Batch of 2 targets.
Target 1
Amino acid sequence: MRLRVGALVSVLVLLAGVHTGATVHAPAEWSELVVAARAIAHGRIIDVRAHAAADRRRVETLVTLQVATYLKGHWGPTVTFRVPGGQVGRYRTVVPGAPRFVLGEEVVLLLGAQGPSIPHVLGLSQGVFRVYRDTQSGERRVTPVPIEGAGEEWTPVVRGDPSRGPLALTDFARGIQRILGAPR
């Protein structure tokens, strides 16, 4: 009995020294994401394929977008980009905040790249805007609505505020062009 208690105390002492970390996902400023993006593309997802990363220690997903239009940059008619996380067989990597994509889904993506590498979505899910067709008006709308403002200009987000509803795709594109046209 005394040996069990000693072993239990030893395990607890060892566990007390183990550092457990948390993932913090701080939101980026909308205009900073737009300016930082190397390309902003609107289109439809045509391929989603998970694979083991080069280091074989994690899984990542390669997603291909059939581009309908570019709001910034131009990388050709299709763009393949990397998203952290995914599942290959029994191996799965989960990355909090990483977006997931479905074949046929319409999206607007803020993409980044460094050097000759596979592009990535900026800000994880912050760089993904889902497009859907409004059933009543037939208009294409974008969600989530980007929060604009900086410093003292920030206004609180009020739950249920009708002005925070999904934006028309054309208004969303105009907002991006306004940010890109603004002097830096």
Note: Helices lie at 2-16, 30-36, 169-181.
Target 2
Amino acid sequence: MTLSLDAIKIRQKDHDIYVSAVRASDLLNNYRVGWWSRNDQSGYQRPLRQSRLREIQSYLTKDIGTFPTSVLANVRGKINVKPIKRIDAKRELCEVTIPDSSLPLWIIDGQHRVEGLKAAIENDSGFGDFPIIVSLFTLNDTYDEMLQFHIVNSRAKSVPTDLAQRHIFRMASKIGLAEVMAREGERDALGAAAIAVVDRLMKDENSPWYERIQLPDEPRKQPGEVIRQRPLSDSIHYILKEKHVLQRDPDKLAKLLGDYWTALKEIFPIAFENPEEYTIQKTTGAYSLHMVFSEVYDKCEEAGAINKDKMKLVLKEMFKKTSERLGAEINDQFWSKTIDEGHHLAQSTSQKMIKALAQYFREALWE
């Protein structure tokens, strides 16, 4: 089958966009959504929120029930365009025919509206004639789809930050880290670059981070997961910022961090055995310990070896001197989430307190 649409072709910079109104039933028979998941990282959409679908269904059936903004969709194949009337240099009335070989339409933005209509039609078939405003792209690359989604959603702060980070990581893979820094800023770019390291750590069965990181396709933490992707990758940005050479070698940094966290696990075995009850593998621990990784690296390099055993010696000495300065022993209990047991510096999630803890570590290293 083919899908025929009366449309206005609009030329914006280097892209033609076809604006039309599509019957809901026609769209619902010819669409797909590229969801991001750990098994399909070419996708870029967040998971559907059932609460949002219920809101849309209620809005359609009981409220005003209009969708005045367009759904963004893409045709990945060829289309046939028959000009009807030229309006001006940038606008033209036309008839667009999309052959079966070029379907489905890929929804870039508006998946909840489309799925909400689908649910409404199940209860009232009359919604099959509901006209949906669609802005249609003809982008050949899924990367370009992702870029459109990222621009529309992240700039409006409606896309989850963990998924937005995946978008930026994919941009860096496509156009280079330097260009992404210019577009998104150094912090966001380096945090996204750290995704390559995070993925390696979570897939390594010997890593203390194996299966302990919550990814964007998981609305809730799964058993064993103790930290979301975003705070972990953001904390690694401090390393990439200070050690530029490691920006180009995620394998090397993942190996170094695997040794680093294995050394920490050997120093604090109870905290790693019960990670939910301690903060060392949560935001506080990840940030404070990654903030001083470069100094530990330099200390090991001075000693002639950068490996797990050497890191363990440097870290044990750092914790010993920090204990003396703080007047509190840095042991497993130090990282406890229990108010009466853990130290307040290890329990706080404010950046000010985390940086204060990192500064204690840093000063102990260079005493």
Note: The chain has 16 helices and ten strands.
